[in-house]
């Protein structure tokens, strides 16, 4: 697999912060892979996502950087989709689900209102919401947390981006729904040949489906490698600690067999 993005020596410091949020990160993101970025809260995962999307706040000091195979960075909302932890925060309470799911695609692909709505229904079906036509007419508060996260995924994928960043996208959900959403994400990105950056604090969740893992701690990349290799023989003491804290990781619950 060729690198979609080569991150080299990337450091990010927020204004007024005494320590950098990211400190000299070297990491390749390969086209079509499912890469899990794993680390505890504050380890710099979301900062990495923002840097990739060109969405760091003004005043953030950036050193090093990234090279995209496409020659230019992906346009958020068009080439790069996002799903966040809290779908309620990214959904507008006074707009119907259908309007919101089709909105990005309408803007980026120049669709008419009617075309955007029909795309929205198609996307709601893709994320396996029952009765997508009815869901399209509903408002966010009428759905459960898991359903809202499916809506957020539908919205993120509507413009058919080549890459998706899911930042703690399932962390607010209970375990059963979490597993369903992860399986759905995995299916959708595989079917579309998309690249997935799956950000999580949960190594057990990520190791169930990610091709590779990148372990972050305090702004540094601790180690990276194929999921099975890292789980079977972690190089860093920190990774060993992470794995040891999950008893069930001895036999990772693989959703799909990893490609050889
Ligand atoms: N907008 C910001 N301004 C200042 N500091 C920030 C900002 N966003 C994150 N940080 C700090 O940067 C560090 C990394 O944060 P973050 O990337 O959000 O970590 P994670 O997503 O792994 O929890 C933390 O110490 C956090 O407090
Ligand atoms: Mg975060």
From TrEMBL:
Molecular function per GO: ATP binding; ATP hydrolysis activity
Pfam families per record: ABC_tran
Highest taxon listed in the record's lineage: Bacteria
UniProt GO cellular component terms: plasma membrane
Subcellular location: Cell inner membrane
UniProt main location, coarse: membrane
All copies of domain ABC transporter, residue ranges: 7-243
InterPro entries, alphabetized: AAA+_ATPase (IPR003593), ABC_Ni/Peptide_Import (IPR050388), ABC_transporter-like_ATP-bd (IPR003439), ABC_transporter-like_CS (IPR017871), P-loop_NTPase (IPR027417)
Alphabetical UniProt keywords: ATP-binding, Cell inner membrane, Cell membrane, Membrane, Nucleotide-binding, Translocase, Transport
Keyword Kinase: no
Protein topology in the membrane: Peripheral membrane protein
Keyword Nucleotidyltransferase: no
Family: Belongs to the ABC transporter superfamily.
Name of the protein: Peptide/nickel transport system ATP-binding protein
Biological source species: Shinella fusca
């Amino acid at each position: 697999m060729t690198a979609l993005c080569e991150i080299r020596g990337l450091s990010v410091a927020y204004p007024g912060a005494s320590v950098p949020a990211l400190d000299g990160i070297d990491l390749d993101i390969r086209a079509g892979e499912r890469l899990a970025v794993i680390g505890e809260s504050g380890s710099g995962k979301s900062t990495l996502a923002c840097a990739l999307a060109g969405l760091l706040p003004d005043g953030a000091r950036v050193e090093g950087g990234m090279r995209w195979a496409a020659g230019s960075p992906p346009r958020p909302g068009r080439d790069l989709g996002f799903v966040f932890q809290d779908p309620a925060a990214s959904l507008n309470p006074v707009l119907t689900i259908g309007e919101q799911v089709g909105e990005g695609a309408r803007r980026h692909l120049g669709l008419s209102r009617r075309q955007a709505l029909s795309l929205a229904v198609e996307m709601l079906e893709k994320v396996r919401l029952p009765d997508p036509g009815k869901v399209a007419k509903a408002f966010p508060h009428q759905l459960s947390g898991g359903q809202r996260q499916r809506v957020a995924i539908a919205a993120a994928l509507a413009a058919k981006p080549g890459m998706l960043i899911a930042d703690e996208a399932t962390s607010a959900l209970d375990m059963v729904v979490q597993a369903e959403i992860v399986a759905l994400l995995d299916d959708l990105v595989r079917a579309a040949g998309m690249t997935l950056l799956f950000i999580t604090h949960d190594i057990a969740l990520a190791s169930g489906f990610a091709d590779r893992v990148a372990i972050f701690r305090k702004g540094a990349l601790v180690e990276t490698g194929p999921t099975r290799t890292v789980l079977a023989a972690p190089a860093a003491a920190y990774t060993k600690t992470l794995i040891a804290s999950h008893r069930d990781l001895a036999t990772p619950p693989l959703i799909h067999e990893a490609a050889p």
